[in-house]
């Protein structure tokens, strides 16, 4: 069972790593930020269109390993339609899951979202890859702060 699950997660990462969703530039984004993970060489640029406090569209470009690309792809899919506060909340929970492998505080409200992001929970076994997985979410927080440059620290 565990091995099957692992294969499934692997498949999700490979799929999103090879064919990232929302991989494009938004022409006139309301918010944008760059993210840089020098440990691995991952770089992304994130674009957000806002509708009031809600994320109407999210897209990214960049170059990086399969994990950073898959994470950015899954992140942009997950935050579309969310408010800024909900997106920040998800970022915090995702960070916890990436570092520990589980997220006991996530609760039922985030179940669907966290299920989708679960594919990346395996990175907690590889500390050097945690930053690859969290880069997109750091960059999201930076964009929502109105900032421009995020590092993976
Ligand atoms: Zn990486």
UniProtKB/TrEMBL annotation:
<protein>
    <submittedName>
        <fullName>SUF system NifU family Fe-S cluster assembly protein</fullName>
    </submittedName>
</protein>
<dbReference type="InterPro" id="IPR002871">
    <property type="entry name" value="NIF_FeS_clus_asmbl_NifU_N"/>
</dbReference>
<dbReference type="Pfam" id="PF01592">
    <property type="entry name" value="NifU_N"/>
</dbReference>
<feature type="domain" description="NIF system FeS cluster assembly NifU N-terminal">
    <location>
        <begin position="9"/>
        <end position="132"/>
    </location>
</feature>
């Amino acid at each position: 069972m565990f091995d099957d699950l692992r294969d499934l997660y692997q498949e999700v990462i490979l799929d999103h790593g090879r064919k990232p969703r929302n991989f494009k530039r938004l022409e006139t984004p309301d918010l944008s930020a760059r993210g840089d993970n020098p440990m691995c060489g991952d770089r992304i640029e994130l674009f957000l269109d806002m509708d009031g406090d809600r994320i109407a569209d999210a897209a990214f470009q960049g170059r990086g390993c399969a994990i950073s690309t898959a994470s950015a792809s899954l992140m942009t899919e997950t935050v579309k339609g969310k408010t800024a506060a909900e997106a920040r909340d998800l970022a915090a929970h995702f960070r916890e899951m990436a570092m520990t492998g589980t997220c006991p505080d996530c609760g039922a409200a985030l179940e669907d979202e966290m299920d989708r992001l679960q594919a990346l929970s395996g990175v907690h076994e590889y500390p050097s890859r945690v930053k690859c997985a969290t880069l997109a979410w750091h960059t999201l927080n930076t964009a929502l702060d109105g900032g421009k440059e995020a590092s993976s620290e």
